[in-house]
Design a protein that fits this description.
283 residues, alpha/beta, seven-stranded mixed sheet
Amino acid sequence: MFMGRLIQQTSRRLLSSSSNEILLTYPESNPGIALLGLNRPPVNAVSLSLGAQLREALAEIKSKKSLQGVILYSTSPKIFCAGADLKERLFIKEEDVPGMVRTFRLMIQDMYELPMPVICAIDGVAMGGGLELALGTDIRICSTTAKMALSETKLAIIPGGGGTQRLPRVVGVPKAKELIFTGRDVFGEEAERIGLVNACVDQNEEGNAAFVKSLEMASLLQERGPVALRMAKKAITEGFEAGPIRAGLEIEHEAYLGVIPTTDRIEALMAFREKRKPNFKGE
């Protein structure tokens, strides 16, 4: 079973709703890391139900101050997320479409605003809203078998989950215009070359190479101070969006003030003096 053995090895506690379209796990073997799984086979189409479950899971994750990172992944082989559930949309009244699209956009914004680093593992197809969901994360890892596109123009619409805004910020305006205007597919190695993903790894026999690589990266986060990670993310994101570097430097200063009074900072200094690993608590 795709992911099954690996998840069993890394997690024993499962939190999810009865329909299980979103799986939220906190691995005992990876303390400080949350695994957020899209679990709506065969293609993880984003239905109203999946969206509601995802927002609920994100709210829970946001409340956990000791978390050092999150991995967003798919439980299904060869697919990350095919985007919106078009079969469901056939029955949505025209006057209800704007509200539905706004809700989807807010769901991705919830992901984007999580205070801790979020890694996205793309081991297959990420189309339309699926790629927009990935763009709402901090670090994206894909496999050589991954295929991505903002393909909305093929359906006579445009990206509505933030794709027109986030993609230019990731790959630059000219490349983003090309990809959105044409809706063409981008495969793993090109995605790394243009900066759409941080890394592209060779796919393995189990089909979960990006997920495995994401776990490796998350293990580095486990050794970092949770408050420091949150303040670093805050400084980078808010500083970049503030515009002029002087404004960004002020945001960095405010973020630095957030780590000074923490017990984790003192623990790090004590651990350095005593030549041991620090025991961070996110306080």
